[in-house]
Amino acid sequence: MKRVVVTGGTRGIGLAVCRAFSQAGYAVTAFYSRGEEDAEKARKLAPEVAFIKADVSDETAVERAFAALSRVDVLVNNAGISLNRQVQDTTSEEWDRVFSVNAKGTFLCCRAAAKKMISEQSGAIVNISSVWGQTGGSCESAYSASKGAVIAFTKALAKELAPSHITVNCVAPGVIDTQMNDCYTAEEKAALSEEIPAGRFGSAEEVARAVLFLAENEYVTGQILGVNGGFFI
Question: In 3D, which of 74, 101, 98, 69 has the Cα closest to residue 85?
Fold first, then answer.
């Protein structure tokens, strides 16, 4: 049975990815860094998933978590944090925190997984970016920059790992109906929906299906797959 590791797997897109891979016959391990209440809810919703507490921005924690796994066939880097703040109000500590999770966390997990995958000469990595990493989002400069870094890293790593038969791709979700967007009011959500050609927010399950596709296609690598309802084309 193939094993997938999903970071940030206790809610939203991460939990949907865990469930999609489980239904496809994978053994699923999910990392989470905080939110024990979310973790307990996730365990009830997906009892077949092994949830492990590991902060992806912590190098020691990442190395320890991967060392405990005998093999990793697929890695999905979903863990991420957002920051809705104008640039003049963004502190350097906030900037560093966003990058430590979104960009550095992706790097640390890819490095740890690559060591195992290279020895097997096979594997798949799917990084979760954002439409804001492609277009930039007003009042989300730190988040946009960190997700743009994930896209550039994905393209470079795809070239680096292709000779080892490892694919590296990226999913860039648009506006998805998850807790991350709970910061918007109902009126703001309605206005945002009007800007999306599909006329609605996407679902976590729709993103999960895209992730599964990229993980299982051995001849697709270095690609950025937008799941955004036509929001960015």
Answer: 98
On the question of pLDDT at 222 being above 90, the answer is yes
What is the band of 43 on the pLDDT scale with cuts at 50, 70, 90?
Answer: very high
| Residue found by looking up tokens 């906030």 in the block | 94
Q: What CA–CA distance (Å, rounded) separates 65 from 143?
A: 26
**pLDDT exceeds cutoff 90 at 179:** no
Look at the alpha carbons of 185, 187, 193, 199 in this order and tell me if their dihedral is positive or negative.
positive
Contact 225, 217 (CB under 8 A): no
Would you say how long the chain is, in residues? Answer: 233
CA distance 74 to 174: 23
Which element (helix H / strand E) includes 166? strand 166-173
The reported pLDDT for the residue numbered 181 is 79
Query: Binning pLDDT at 50, 70 and 90, where does residue 232 land?
Result: very high
Check if 32 is active-site.
no
Catalytic residue (one of 32, 143, 184, 219): 143
Query: Is residue 80 within 8 Å of 127, Cβ to Cβ?
Result: no
Residue with tokens 């006329």: 199
